[in-house]
Amino acid sequence: MTDRQALVQADRGQAATTIHLVSKDSFADWAKRLSAGQRAALAAQKFDGGGFDHAVVPDGDGWFAVAGVADLAALSTWCLAKLGEVLPGGTYRLAEEPAALDKALVGWACGQYRFDRYRSEASEEGPRILLTKQAKAVEPALAEAAAVELVRDLVNTPAEDMGPAELEAVASQLAKAYRAELHVTKGDQLEQVFPMVHMVGRAAGRSHAPRMIELEWGDPAHPRLAIVGKGVCFDSGGLDIKPSSGMLLMKKDMGGAAHALALARLVMEHGLKVRLHLLVPAVENAVSANSFRPGDVLRSRAGLSVEIGNTDAEGRLILGDALAKAGEAKPELVIDFATLTGAARVALGPDLPGLFAREDATAEALYRGGEESDDPVWRLPLHAGYREYLKSDIADLNNAGGAGMAGASVAALFLDKFVPEGIDWAHFDTFAWRPAAKPGRPKGGDALGLRAAWHMLKARYGG
């Protein structure tokens, strides 16, 4: 992996290649200043100022780059990302810096992400370093890019190397780095205090034994913030087993945990004025002689009994125990992330996490955070009328709605049962995966909803 901290640096007059930014509207006037040979070079590369397009232009013994952006006055997160992918390794500076460059710095760094852990030959390309006069923007932008890339690394890693123990190791590293308290519950104790986490994960055996990972940080006098992430490190579907095609991406079913860990790091790194409580229920939903079964009734930490209508609806079970524990400390806000339902993907596609929230103001703040950071989210309803889909003949509720409709809302309503009344709670049903590459966003694991939540938390709690 490239040293992320080297990709954006304060401009102190270092030698650098110039990048000119133009738009469709400004390109013609800008090109008039060039020589005939330079304009010919642009024409040969069919460059006309279009967004994400770029060209290399000879300039005496050297060269400069020109890139098209949609809006010169307001650079988006991803407008420079393509340059970070394709330019030769070296040092660059913008000919004219816009007033606000912070978002584009995130995209520049994210555009150079490579997951090469399993490649025998690593890329020999050198880093592309961007210089900026806005020195105060460098560290926050790189921290945000590093959080995105943490999610990508964790999700891209196969389940054999990213099981519950490995998620615990990541949390342990964070605890050491930021002097946080780490508590891990597993074994016999897990069965007693987090019974649904135990039941879902027990079939994986000792090698991928289930556990509840908790981290606490910050001044206890500050508002309490709980961040919860679904950590299903691989999902076979259990006894309601998935077809082989349905398992191909199931290493990403811990994507919620990856988001939660990355967001917690941002909170601690920037010193937000909160008492942070991170919870990651980590399991593998495996098939074994002691797998939990359709029709079983599970007890939960909250005291509710849950009939199992489908063993492949396991994520909501482990989140139920985690949300119940989070709620016991009466937090001011709870945010959870989960790769929870295919229904959310049918409704919203891969790019938009489904957002559910009890409070309209919180939903609006998260939506606004997504708009500000080019990390869009879309609110879906917690419609009380759909609670009937969770009814059970023999238990307090069923884990799988039987109607075959409103699947994302029904799953969110299941979680809502485990969050105590009166607590501000938001739930992200995210994909954590990008099926096709876009500038700055390669195919594979990705952070979707992370930066929306981060920008909302910054605005709410400060640092």
From TrEMBL:
GO terms of biological process kind: proteolysis
Cytosol aminopeptidase domain boundaries: 310-317
Cellular component GO terms, alphabetical: cytoplasm
Keyword Chloroplast in annotation: no
Keyword Cytoplasm in annotation: no
Keywords: Aminopeptidase, Hydrolase, Manganese, Protease
Pfam family, one: Peptidase_M17_N_1
SUPFAM superfamilies referenced in this protein's UniProt entry, alphabetically: Zn-dependent exopeptidases (SSF53187)
GO MF, one example: metalloaminopeptidase activity
Family note: Belongs to the peptidase M17 family.
Protein name (database record): Leucyl aminopeptidase family protein
Species, as recorded: Novosphingobium flavum
Phylogenetic classification of the source organism: Bacteria, Pseudomonadati, Pseudomonadota, Alphaproteobacteria, Sphingomonadales
